[in-house]
Write a structure and sequence with these properties.
alpha+beta, 20% helix
């Protein structure tokens, strides 16, 4: 996903791209609200991709159920041409984690179409996440060397300034 164009000026802190680790993909499956009643976090899922067809099956688990639909945040409900308010079955995103070993054997690409089937037999899991993640889903050490150099420079400057101020006060 590119959010800037060649020659465009940007401000510090502007996101210019998204980095997606292809070994940790997930699926946001849009289920009808009428299908969510028995879905729970942790339930097993079987996935097939249009890329490989029915020959390749992935396993996964439900990671989370969306907090709402896109229409939940709309200013007005859907309206038909005659002015009557109509009820439309909404779809809620359900995040599915894919087994990383299977993903390594048959890599997927972002934006592909998949078919997701949830095994609803075990309903012991929570509907909503009970605990926030204990650690970040992704992290990077890309700035660690630069930060170490900056910390060393700061320490050296503080030490030099401390020593210089000590000499000055002793001479008075």
């Amino acid at each position: 996903k590119r959010s800037v164009q060649l020659g465009q000026r940007i401000q510090p802190g502007t996101a210019t791209m998204a980095v997606i680790p292809l070994d940790q993909l997930w699926i946001d499956a849009n289920f009808k609200e009428t299908q969510l009643g028995k879905m729970r976090i942790g339930q097993p899922v079987e996935i097939s991709s249009d890329l490989y067809g029915s020959d390749v099956k992935y396993s996964g688990t439900i990671d989370s159920l969306g907090a709402g639909t896109g229409s939940a945040f709309a200013l007005l409900p859907a309206q038909n041409a005659t002015g009557n308010w109509i009820k439309i079955v909404q779809r809620v995103p359900v995040r599915v984690q894919i087994n990383p070993e299977e993903l390594a054997q048959h890599p997927l690409r972002i934006g592909l179409s998949t078919t997701v089937e949830v095994n609803l037999h075990d309903q012991s899991g929570p509907v909503l996440a009970q605990q926030p993640r204990k650690q970040a889903a992704f992290s990077t050490q890309v700035y660690a060397e630069q930060l170490a150099d900056a910390d060393a420079l700061i320490t050296r400057l503080i030490h030099e300034n401390s020593a210089a101020s000590g000499k000055t006060s002793a001479q008075r």
